[in-house]
From TrEMBL:
Residues 5-233 form the ABC transporter domain. CDD domains: ABC_cobalt_CbiO_domain1. PROSITE patterns: ABC_TRANSPORTER_1 (PS00211), ABC_TRANSPORTER_2 (PS50893). Pfam families: ABC_tran. The keyword Transport applies. Belongs to the ABC transporter superfamily. This is ATPase component NikO of energizing module of nickel ECF transporter. GO terms for cellular component: ATP-binding cassette (ABC) transporter complex.
Length: 262
């Protein structure tokens, strides 16, 4: 597989002296879905900003084999980022204008802009929302509009920061299905371990700014001892399944020990 990102000894210190990343090493391959999990303050969002070239860092971030050099690098257009708060990415009077903003800045014709807006809104399930005000939509709808603004740029890589946070159950389910349908390299920083389990090819555990574990979702998300070691809990669906399995075992044992049940 083609290597998209190669991160070497990546470190970042905030102006107040707090170190957010400490010697992170990471590789991400073309078409791969990677989930970055960890407790609050682990450095997940900071790592996404570093991968997007939005902050100065110590160490190296190689994108497609070349050093990524911040905002002025034209390859930045190949990397789309969805921030945790959709309102930071929505500022126009209509959904159409918000989604069209990026392609227009790239100099595309209005015909091409229209095609990209239509395609992006279809992907996020918001066809017909073009003339609506983004600020009058629900939080989940605004998040999908924000994603459409990124997809209209047709990035090669998508970075998502806590994409399911603050969503109600229905909106979360819709967004999870949307994530499963995206066919591009994506890296998701999330507390949502169910999202990581269901949509990622690989899970990276970040703790105190360091990568402390990496593996398949089943090897990481289902490992209670590993999760607890780094301040994480088994997701509810795993605890539920474990309870169901244990209940079934006890029930079966009860049946086998009761002659009347045979």
């Amino acid at each position: 597989m083609t290597k998209i990102f190669e991160v070497r000894s990546l470190s970042y210190t905030y102006p107040d002296g707090r170190q957010a990343l400490r010697g992170v090493n990471l590789e991400v391959f073309s078409g791969e879905a990677v989930a970055i999990i960890g407790p609050n303050g682990a450095g997940k969002s900071t790592l996404l900003l570093a991968l997007a070239g939005l902050i100065p860092v110590e160490g190296e971030v190689l994108y497609k084999g070349r050093h990524l050099n911040g905002l002025k690098d034209p390859r930045r257009l190949e990397i789309g980022i969805l921030f945790q708060d959709p309102d930071t990415q929505l500022f126009s009077l209509t959904v159409y204008e918000d989604v069209a903003f990026g392609p227009r800045q790239m100099g595309f014709s209005e015909e091409e802009v229209h095609r990209r807006v239509k395609e992006a809104l279809e992907k996020v399930g918001l066809s017909g929302f073009e003339e609506r005000s983004p600020h009058h939509l629900s939080f989940g709808e605004r998040r999908r509009v924000a994603l459409a603004t990124v997809l209209s740029m047709q990035p090669d890589v998508l970075l998502l920061d806590e994409p399911t946070s603050n969503l109600d159950p229905r909106a979360r389910k819709q967004f999870l299905e949307l994530m499963k349908g995206l066919r591009l390299t994506r890296i998701v920083a999330t507390h949502d371990l169910e999202l990581a389990y269901e949509t990622a090819d690989r899970v990276v555990v970040l703790y105190q700014g360091k990568v402390v574990a990496c593996g398949r979702p089943s090897d990481v998300i289902l490992n209670e001892k590993l999760l607890k070691s780094y301040g994480l809990e088994l997701p509810l669906f795993v605890r539920y399944l474990k309870g169901e399995v244990e209940y079934a075992r006890k029930d079966k044992a009860s049946l086998l020990s009761t002659p009347d049940a045979l």
